[in-house]
Amino acid sequence: MQRRRRRCINPKDDARCYIDTGGDKAGLDVQYINAIKGRGIFTSIPFQTGDFLIEYRGELISQQECETRLKRYPARLKGFMFEFHFDGKLWCVDAAKEHESLGRLVNDNHRNPTAKMKKLSVQGKPHLCLFADRDISPGEEITYNYGDSDWPWRCKGLDEVMPLETCGATQAQSQNENIEEMVTNSDCTETTESFTKTTGQVFSPLSRAEKHCLRIASVSSLDRCVSCVGPVSSKWLGYECRECSQVWHKSCFRNIQDDNLHYLPKPSENSFRDELQSNQSESEKDQISDEGMSGLYIRKDLWRHVRRCPCKPKNEEEEEKPGRTKVLGLASAQESVFCQQISSGVWKLLNAMRQDEVAAVVRNDLSIIQFAQSLYSKHGQDPTKYEYIRQKLREVGRLLLCLRTEFSVYNLEEAVKPANCQRVVQARDDELIKSTKMFEKLYTSKLSEFVSHSALNTLSGAKYNKPSTLPFTEDVQILHRHLDKSAESAICNLKEEATPQNYAELAKVALAQIIVFNRRSTGEVSKMHLKHFNERDNAELHQDVAKGLSKTEQRLCNYFSRVEITGKRGRKVAVLLSPSMFDALSLLVSKRTECGVCSTNVFLFARPKCMSYYRGQDCLRLHASKCGAKHPEHLRSTHLRKHVATLSQVLNLKNNELDQVADFLGHDIRVHQDFYRLPVPTTQLAKISKLLLSMEKGQLSSIQGKSLDEIDIEDEISFSDAVNSDSDDDETAAPPPECGTSQPVTSASTSVITEQAIDHLAETVSSTVSETAPPYEGKDHEKARKTIKKPWAKDEVAAVMRHFKLYIAKGNLATKSECHHCKLVEGKVLDERTVQNVRDFVRNRGIARKRQSQ
Ligand SMILES: C[S@@+](CC[C@H](N)C(=O)[O-])C[C@H]1O[C@@H](n2cnc3c(N)ncnc32)[C@H](O)[C@@H]1O
């Protein structure tokens, strides 16, 4: 049960205090009740019986003046005339003029009023004050009995439209009971006298009752046409709904936010003009045109009116540009030019804001709207900036809201006046900022304490369960084969008929091949210029550089072409082209039709003339859907690059080698070490290409544990040797690629990559275009691919079988020293075979035997 609050101040003293200061008590709010009753005063805190509540303020006028005004006033304003007897005379408090005092808005209730009107004489002048007639709870309306008269809402029962809380409780009070005189000291006296209120106007009944909860706000969103109304007081107030933020003009209750909702009654032109006149000086009255309320417009509608305003001077019409409007803001009374296009964008932005108190403030302040316009004209092109603009507007809106409620500064223009500097600084709400920062700190430091242990476990567990998206070697090989096939047919098609479609087809495949082989990003390779390709380094391997390379490396240098393109952040990035890729690109270049000068800066992969280049990603996806790979994501070039990076760890790369791989792949590296090594282009051709080839063919197990240098130091292997030169196909076939890194690696399989393997790999890569590619300048690829095959003689076979028959039967591999021993023992018979030849023979025979037995 609520405890009764002890009154700490005498109600009369309390009233006197408010009479002196001219202010209203806290705990009382204006709310819009309905169209008939209009506004009312509601409590937000409890009051006890007898408490002083509010003063009915207005202009104290004599009876004579009252009569004159009553003749002039429209019916609606007559309801604000409060007549009473004081000191033997009839007086009147005229509260018709709109002002911020709340007493003038208290409604009538003759059945169960919550307050009673009393007269207090302060320094010889009468003051009308309302005191609580009973205990009032928060949220109740303050009402008093207007007196026994034929009030229209009483006889028509209109006060029942919005039923009063405790309707029908008591009998109507007599007119004489309505006002009491309060006897205090000599300065302040109480009187009880009869009073009269003139009959007020009743708004026309509505088809549906409105339940907006209004409060007073400065309606800066109502603009005035300069031509027909002219500047008026900046203190023009209106009503704003607390819940839906719609705004109404104070006198007409016209809904100005949404034109479709004209359910609030419009006052007649006359009544509006009357009220306007009552609020304006004589000079201002003259300016009010016969158009009546047409001088007031919703900002977004004003431009329409201004265009055809009959009051507009001729020269202004000429100045006006289409799509632009001249408006006069109420608050600023200054002309501003709005671009209609920007305005509509800004309105859309404002409407998309969370609809709350702050949004209402933003929408109703001219300066904030102008600020919004400037932000919109600056960032409006970019929709990603909309949220930023909204946040900025909300910041200013919050500031203005604080200024309004705490410091009675109603618009931004007032706020920027030097006199208000102190208030604005205070309104920044330092406390809130401080506490927000503190919360942020606490949140980061104490999160683990506040959030339950199991919740954190779930969060971290989700990371563990995330599937790895690296592609398997097998996937890469499938893709590689698919691309080879596609490239072959694309080359044939383009050679047959040079149509843009065929060109595009080959460009797509070649691009995809280059991306996959080089593990480059699509963005980088697809933007390769013709110029990059034409200006590639064609120079022969320099003798001095060649000395630092093994024979294999030298061959690879001749085998691959290296093109430099522009990568991310403008860095130079190398792309290696196998002969097949090179042939495809050469064909593409030869089929282009642009002039040689202007085509140098165009994208190589763009169709000639059409210039819409293709991205390898499409091709990768196409493949993924065709070959049934489970996760197309695996085939993304970034993943392919990760794939190389991961697999290169299977090798035993030295620091500088890792740098080289990283450099090629475009990772962060310590490039300064490059000083002490071979030139970068040569390293990339000779060493990295081998790694890429090994990846391509899934031969990783054969290079496991090796450094880049170790892979190619195979001096004992001659280039003329070929395992697949044997007459017996099964024995001499190149070893099949060992797919996948997950395959168990035997001690024998950890042998170094062979020349033959490289040959095989190289041949596979180039196989698709070797026949069909047109001749091109540069490398002697034919020479590089030429291998002299020497069939194994019967005595040679017999010599090896004597030593390794058992190995072959079991499918085991021979070690180097065992092969060496075999050569030594057999002497001349195996003179023409190297240790590696013998090893390969044993391995191939073993594989063949295995296949046969299966
Ligand atoms: C002093 S004003 C009160 C404030 C008024 N509600 C407003 O919004 O401006 C008096 C006028 O309020 C309206 N009014 C007061 N009490 C009412 C009631 N119980 N039912 C209907 N209208 C009432 C009448 O139009 C009256 O002329």
From the N-terminal CA to the C-terminal CA, the straight-line distance is 94 Å
Strand segment tally: 22
Biggest sheet record:
5 strands, mixed
* Backbone structural class: alpha+beta
The CATH class of the largest domain is Mainly Alpha
Radius of gyration: 47 Å
> Which ligands occur here?
S-adenosylmethionine
Task: Give start-end ranges of low-pLDDT stretches.
Answer: 157-177, 183-237, 249-296, 313-342, 595-600, 609-637, 668-678, 712-786
Oligomerization status of the protein chains = single chain
Query: What is the CATH architecture assignment of the largest domain?
Result: Orthogonal Bundle
**General form:** rod-shaped
What's the helical proportion of residues?
40-55%
Mean pLDDT value: 63
Into which percentage range does the β-strand content fall?
5-15%
What's the domain count? 5
Figure out the total of helices.
34
Q: What's the CATH topology name of the largest domain?
A: hpI Integrase, Chain A
Salient structural properties:
854 residues, rod-shaped, alpha+beta, Beta-clip-like, N-lysine methyltransferase KMT5A-A, 4-stranded mixed beta sheet, SET_dom_sf, transferase, 13% strand, single chain, 5-stranded mixed beta sheet, methyltransferase, methyltransferase activity, binds S-adenosylmethionine
Describe it.
GO terms for molecular function: methyltransferase activity. Keywords: Methyltransferase, Transferase. It comes from Dissostichus eleginoides. Helix 17 runs antiparallel to helix 18 (about 500-520) and helix 17 (about 475-495) packs across helix 24 (about 615-625). The chain folds into five domains: about 10-195, SET domain (Beta-clip-like, Beta Complex); about 215-240 and about 260-425, no CATH class; about 430-465, no CATH class; about 475-710, Orthogonal Bundle (hpI Integrase, Chain A); about 790-854. It has 34 helices and 22 strands. Strands 3, 8, 9, 11 and 12 form a five-stranded mixed beta sheet that branches. A four-stranded mixed beta sheet has the order 1-2-10-7, with no helix packed on it. It has a four-stranded antiparallel beta sheet with strand order 4-6-5-13, with helices on one face. Helices cover about 45% and strands about 15% of the residues. Strand 5 (about 80-85) and strand 6 (about 90-95) form a beta hairpin. With about 850 residues, the chain is α+β, with helices and mostly antiparallel strands. Bound molecules: S-adenosylmethionine (SAM). S-adenosylmethionine binds near residues 37, 39 and 109. S-adenosylmethionine binds next to strand 2 and strand 7.
